[in-house]
Amino acid sequence: MITPEVIARINELAQKQKNGVLNDSEKKEQAQLRRLYIDNIKKQVKAQLDSVTVVPHSETCGCGCHAKH
């Protein structure tokens, strides 16, 4: 689960990387946290897409998309 603490740690490690002071164990931790974050986002997107339903659209729906000009 992505918590504010996890995001704060990701940002902290990113700042250390930017400053060039990231050691090997921190690089490993950063990679794991990034993977956790990405996997969480992918899970959320998949859940959102799985909940989408397609509604049939007809020419008599009245929305105006088939209006003749």
UniProtKB/TrEMBL annotation:
Q: Where in the cell is it found?
A: Cytoplasm
Any stretches that span the bilayer, and where are they?
none
Q: Per the UniProt entry, what species is this protein from, by scientific name?
A: Propionispora vibrioides
Give the CC-aspect GO terms: cytoplasm
Task: List the Gene3D superfamilies hit by this protein, alphabetically.
Answer: Helix hairpin bin (1.10.287.540)
Q: What is this protein called?
A: UPF0291 protein SAMN04490178_13019
- InterPro entries assigned: DUF896
Family, per the entry? Belongs to the UPF0291 family.
Which PANTHER family does the UniProt record give? UPF0291 PROTEIN CBO2609/CLC_2481, UPF0291 PROTEIN YNZC
Q: Which UniProt keywords apply?
A: Cytoplasm
